[in-house]
Design a protein that fits this description.
alpha/beta, eight-stranded mixed β-sheet, seven-stranded mixed β-sheet, 10 helices, 15 strands, 33% helix
Amino acid sequence: MANRRRERKKQGSTVAVVLAAALAILFILHQHFNPAEPVMAPAAEGEVAVHFIDVGQGDSILIQAYGQNLLVDAGENDQGGTVTDYLRAAGVEKLDYVIATHPHSDHIGGMDTVLRNFSVGQVLMPELPDRLVPTTKTYTDVLDAIEELGLKVKKASPGTELTLGPDAEGRQATVEILAPLKDYDDLNEMSVLARFEAGTFSVLLGGDMEEKSEKDVLASGAELRSTVQKLSHHGSSTSNTREFIQAVQADYYIISVGAGNSYGHPSEEVLALLAETGKPVYRTDQDGSIVLVAGPDGVRVTTETADMAA
């Protein structure tokens, strides 16, 4: 009898150990694979953070600077929840600015969901020529959300400048709209080109702008040199010309792209151009969400896949 009791006690202890181990594994899996969890701790005081959220074949970028938040695009229609969850996990309660770079679904599809879930200060969109105004449900859903929520919409035109901050120490950042400079015949060319700057740290965000718009921006003499360049149009060869990449002279390149997409993004030609620079290239299809934090001690990069492997 005593032997049987000892055996049952031993078995119970073994089961408890196995259950504890299983729970620990589940916790780790949740922490590393929950797509809503940011891949870094919040930026410290005096730092700014730029999140390139993994939304598959699409774009969504969160900029956090000196107590304010700016969102650029929100992925496809089925990514609104992903972006919303990510923003909440990153501590976002209000979006001071939202930029919709252009009305293609992989950039604004999730925007109506995001707008309905946060307090929003101002929405910026490019002014489109009548012939290019979409009639898609995706576009009308965003416009309906803007109207129902009574949001302010500002034309994203070159020369427009937004301010994030100042904080208690007087630090502030700016976002300048550089394009579109003309009325083009393609919605991609009508993409907003925005440059974020905080001290010596800067990020260039080009939506899906292509070669014509790039050439016009180069001819305009706009300041393009940036610490980080988010490649336009998911690394397509119809964008990201050698001349444009050389003008930006980035230290880090980001490609927001979906794994196994049918478009051949990113282009091997563009990847070869980036390889020539010798600078690091990060891709959401390989690295998951990517976060760059800039402060007095420089720039640090955190990626979702590196976090999972840690």
